[in-house]
Specification:
By secondary structure, this protein is mainly beta. It folds into 3 domains: about 80 residues, 2-Layer Sandwich (Phosphorylase Kinase, domain 1); about 180 residues, Orthogonal Bundle (Transferase(Phosphotransferase), domain 1); about 350 residues, YVTN repeat-like/Quinoprotein amine dehydrogenase (Methylamine Dehydrogenase, Chain H, 7 Propeller), CATH 2.130.10. Helices cover about 15% and strands about 35% of the residues. The strands form 10 sheets. Strands 15-13-14-41-18-19-20 form a 7-stranded mixed β-sheet, with no helix packed on it. A 6-stranded antiparallel β-sheet has the order 1-2-3-4-6-5, covered by helices on one side. It has a 6-stranded antiparallel β-sheet with strand order 16-17-40-39-38-37, with no helix packed on it.
């Protein structure tokens, strides 16, 4: 286990926890690496002495952490006292701090810098939604874990909007503190936004933005000087500059910063300092990212681009695939069963034969469906619907197409399902407004070629589709990218053989991805012109499943040789970051937020879609389906 050896006088046991080493120490206490009785690692923060002020800070941290989403920070397991000394036991998160990472390896490169910026502002937005002001956000309090950045050390955190400062007593780390810390007045979430911007600038440059010399000099620069933003790339520079405004009223809220980094308009985000104590933002922003999952052993495999398109045949054992357009994570604290009482909604969709269980904090919701009967006596009976932008109603879709909603929620792309060679427009994309008006078609290919799995890019303009040959057992021939503004399309024929029936999805960093061969042991990433970029090995993707990428570029796939275990891999390096136990027979459909997976379980009665966290814990049921039909469903953020 990592950690330094114990010092003389250190305890060998705290409560029921066996102490193995030291993780760190400060003036008030020590953080130990310990083990639970079953051998799981935990962190134990324990005070040096029974100092009432320090004990109050420790109690405050224990009170604050359970209110913050699990993906943001190490979660509290237990609070207690040993030999009259207070301690807090929390989840052990591996990885160096950002301070250590930059000190040892130098400034963070542009691509990793963007991921860091998006991940940390996502965490900060969730912290503020929990009604908490951190007040000591800095590089030393950001852990770079395999699951993404975690924010730690809430010892001086307070409920939002309640703290006044006299300008005399300063708690925190001055080099990253906002001007209001040194003036008389309130300290709210805007101070954390300032500290976040300073931390990002440190990551990019390797030095604190306001210097590291004497305290008076640092404070003077924070109050009156502007730091050098040169190390930051263009759009990130603009956002950081706005967050470093001297006046807290002029800074964007963390939620607004996140939307800006994702290329989305803020649409009325509340100023950071207006969050009241104990209250979250009225409704988390629904991010632009969309996912697509496929669950189908049928010849036609559909895919989603901007939301999650899930194709399923409920009567048959099936394999599923998913994809997300990874332009940046939109993560919210996922409401659990116990949190649903006030705001939960049960939405019945009779035409689909499904019951949805939704909550305002959900990052995705069902926005369209296409259902066909498996009863041969009903012939080709089917029904389709597109959900209104606001509300629960589904407008009937008369064509046999699944509408796939664009990132801004304004338009939908449609292609024929199981068209056959004789069906008109099988090689074209139909584009409509959300209300199904304003229709036009974008020609892509001619028969016997046809299209499946429309998927919007994050720019809301391009649509990716898989091109397949209806005269050759639906074999994949390549992909096409259509421009919905110019109404043109480019077909890229597969350069390598053995494409099988795998479909193409948007991959990380604007790439196009698909399962590389019938063995399912490789995922291949391509440039939009078809040039191979890299291959991810050691995956378990069936030929009829699609890669499942999260918004920050992670890949969720079944682990090789383990049908009921998912592996989460870095989409850039292919390195495994964690494994996730799946329910028996569970099939990954999509990422549901930043740290949950949507997993379909056909073996349950009725078949259901569940949200599980990255420990494999089922958080709640998202939808239940009636057996006896084949269907495709599309989940998106709008």
């Amino acid at each position: 286990m990592p950690g330094s050896p114990l010092s003389p006088g250190d305890p060998t046991r705290v409560g029921r926890y066996l102490v193995r080493g030291r993780l760190g120490a400060g003036g008030q206490g020590v953080v130990y690496l310990a083990e639970t009785p079953d051998g799981a690692p935990v962190a134990v923060k324990m005070l040096h002495a029974a100092d009432e002020e320090a004990a109050e800070a420790l109690r405050r941290e224990a009170e604050v952490l359970p209110r913050v989403a699990a993906f943001c920070t190490a979660q509290v397991i237990e609070v207690g006292t040993a030999d009259a000394l207070p301690y807090v036991v929390s989840e052990y998160v591996t990885g160096p701090t950002l301070q250590q990472e930059v000190t040892e390896r130098g400034p963070v490169r542009e691509h990793e810098l963007r991921r860091l910026a998006v991940g940390t502002i996502t965490a900060l937005a969730a912290i503020h939604r929990a009604g908490v002001v951190h007040r000591d956000f800095k590089p030393g309090n950001v852990l770079i874990s395999p699951q993404g950045p975690r924010v730690i050390d809430f010892g001086i955190a307070r409920p939002a909007g309640v703290l006044e400062t006299t300008g005399e007593a300063v708690m925190g780390t001055p080099a990253y503190m906002a001007p209001e810390h040194f003036r008389q007045g309130p300290i709210g979430p805007a101070a954390d936004v300032f500290a976040w911007a300073s931390t990002v600038l440190f990551a990019a440059s390797g030095t604190p933005p306001f210097g590291a010399d004497s305290l008076p000099a640092i404070v003077n620069r924070i109050l009156a000087a502007e730091p050098d933003l040169g190390p930051l790339p263009g759009d990130l520079r603009d956002v950081v500059a706005a967050c470093l405004a001297k006046d807290p009223a002029g800074r964007p809220a963390a939620r607004e910063v996140l939307l800006r980094l994702l290329g989305r308009p803020p649409d009325g985000a509340a100023p950071a300092e207006t969050l009241a104590a104990g209250h979250a933002a009225a409704r988390p922003a629904r991010g632009p990212r969309k996912l697509l999952a496929t669950l189908a052993p049928t010849p036609s495999r559909r895919r989603l681009l901007t939301g999650a398109v899930v194709t399923a045949v409920a009567l048959l054992a099936a394999t599923a695939a998913l994809t997300a357009v990874p332009s940046g994570p939109v993560t919210v604290a996922l409401a659990t069963k116990g949190a649903l009482a006030a705001d939960a909604r049960t939405v019945t969709v009779p035409e689909l034969g499904a019951t949805l269980h939704e909550h305002p904090t959900d990052p995705l919701r069902l926005t369209s469906f296409l259902r066909g009967s498996t009863d041969l006596s009903q012939g080709l009976a089917f029904s389709a619907g597109l959900r209104a932008a606001d509300g629960d109603g589904f407008q009937p879709v008369t064509t046999r197409m699944l509408p796939v909603v664009s990132p801004d929620g304004a338009r939908a792309a449609h292609v024929h399902e199981n068209p056959g060679v004789a069906l008109e427009n099988a090689g074209a994309i139909r584009v409509t407004r959300r209300d199904l008006g304003g229709e036009f078609w974008v020609p892509v290919v001619d028969p016997p070629l046809a299209l499946r799995r429309p998927s919007w890019a994050e720019d809301g303009r391009r649509v990716l589709v898989t091109v397949y040959d209806t005269g050759d057992d639906d074999r994949t021939m390549g992909f096409a990218i259509a421009d919905a503004e110019r109404r043109t399309a480019t077909f890229v024929r597969a350069a390598d053989s053995g494409a099988g029936k795998a479909d193409y999805v948007w991959g990380p960093d604007g790439t196009v991805a698909r399962t590389a061969d019938a063995t399912g042991r490789r995922i291949r990433l391509y440039e939009v012109d078809g040039t191979p970029r890299r291959t991810i090995d050691q995956v378990n993707q069936p030929d009829d499943a699609i890669p499942a990428f999260s918004a920050d570029g992670r890949l969720a796939t079944r682990c090789p040789g383990a049908a009921d275990t998912a592996c989460v891999l870095d989409g850039g390096t292919g390195r495994r970051s964690t494994t996730v136990p799946l329910p028996p027979g569970g099939v990954i459909w999509f990422w549901f937020g930043q740290d949950h997976l949507g997993v379909y379980t056909e073996q349950s009665s009725p078949p259901r879609l569940q949200a599980i966290d990255l420990t494999g814990r089922t958080v709640r049921t998202l939808a239940e389906f009636t057996p006896g039909a084949s269907w495709s469903v599309h989940w998106s953020a709008r």
